[in-house]
Amino acid sequence: MLVGIMGNLEMLKVRLDQGLIDGNIKYVDGPLTSVNCAAALTHRLLAFSRCQTLDPKPTDVNHLVLSMEDLIRRTLGPNIYLETVLTNGLWTALCDPNQLETALLNLAINSRDAMPDGGRLTIETVNAPLDREGLAGAGEVETGDYIRPCVSDTGVGMTTDIAKRAVDPFFTTKPIGQGTALGLSMIYGFVKKSKGHMRILSRPGEGTTVQLLLPRRVGPAETQTPHTLLPATCIDQKAIVLLVEDEDAVRKILPRCLEISGMS
């Protein structure tokens, strides 16, 4: 990624030194693409290391799955049948709903890639009261009540050794260039920071099931309201902005961005 950034910027500098103006936009687009990829990579690594900031809320997992159904169907394509098996009276989970959406979508994409000739994807939700025996192998998870969303497919499956390594960052069985090899590790980090657990059950030729354990929150789920942004016309462009930044490169560029917006 750094090569993509440095190479394009060095080429842009050479062309500007030579007085060449036309056609330089492509040398700007390249670094921007690389920076966005680096930001996404950092986001996933933070999720795996459990340093990512979460916003846990009482969440209706059934409602969340239903709200994603059309998106997941379009993601899977026409050759994969989507089935949802949602428990009536499902408990309220305590988790970051946005991160749960991302986790379920990533699992659906993994399942799609494991079924190149088509198949069935099942998303199931169940209440899971767990005692110490039921939590065998779940590490730091405490006994208690959990909600268990499961994503199952009829794909190629994995061996036991591969399933054990599936959450390792950058481990993948996909061809080079397909995916980031961070999807499962990101989900694992999110679930662990939510004080839950993740299990992968798979056999070659029999498909894969990924179970997420999320802690129960006693009480009703929150109603999610969309975030609203103030229109640009509401910004007082005559405002004086105090800029405090310890990174020299950032401190140099931000004033120029503010000046372009008409501020001082």
Automatic annotation (TrEMBL):
Catalytic activity: ATP + protein L-histidine = ADP + protein N-phospho-L-histidine
Molecular function GO labels: protein histidine kinase activity
One Pfam family this sequence matches: HATPase_c
Cited PROSITE patterns: HIS_KIN (PS50109)
EC number: 2.7.13.3
Coiled-coil residues: none
Domain Histidine kinase: 1-218
Protein's UniProt name: histidine kinase
Organism of this sequence: Noviherbaspirillum saxi
